[in-house]
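retry 2 of 3: previous attempt timed out while embedding fe (ii) ion. Reduced batch size to 1 and resubmitted. Inputs unchanged:
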Amino acid sequence: MKAIESLIAEHQIIDRVAAALGAYAGRLRRGEPVDEADLARFAQWFVDFAECGHHEKEENILLPMLARQGWSWDSGVLPAIRREHRQETYLIDVLHQAGERAMSWHAEDRRHIGAAALALVEFQRSHHRLESVDLFPAVDLRLSEVQQAELERTFDRFDREHAQRRASALSLAAALIERYAPGPPVEPRPETGVLELLNDPTDCECCKAPAEL
Ligand SMILES: [Fe+2]
Ligand SMILES: [Fe+2]
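retry 2 succeeded.
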């Protein structure tokens, strides 16, 4: 279950940054002063860590592996999760666009942006609930120990291929949490040593980073 534990650890980091975004949104809606530039930082963080990191691992590694074991790709949990990932992309895009207009926000803009940010926070909660209840337990039920070990190695390989982006995102997460919702420090996932290549290398579809050779 180590592969799934790593996804759960990432959920915890995403939850922490979502809580910071929620606090930021609350200040915006109350008309309190905020650093407008932080909105673009939050939006970029969700792209870099949640979308291009975490969701890529779920969509391009875990879900296809479960489908190869006979879980339906077109009905039930797997398409529901893929649909929610598209919904999250839309919510992040709304924040991104608002962040680009940061210097020209009016009072009404601030209320709209606060509401959009809270929509993303609430979405994250519900999405993580769906995966915790309907997706992660299936890994133990449907994948053998050998397959779970393969899953773990493939996740590790993905993280190594995107190590720089991941490190930058973890560092930005710590800064945003400290600024808006301080608590215990964010711990990056420990490295797990030398990894072997299991599949043909392909460039990352999300950030276009080249695969390791
Ligand atoms: Fe997800
Ligand atoms: Fe997830």
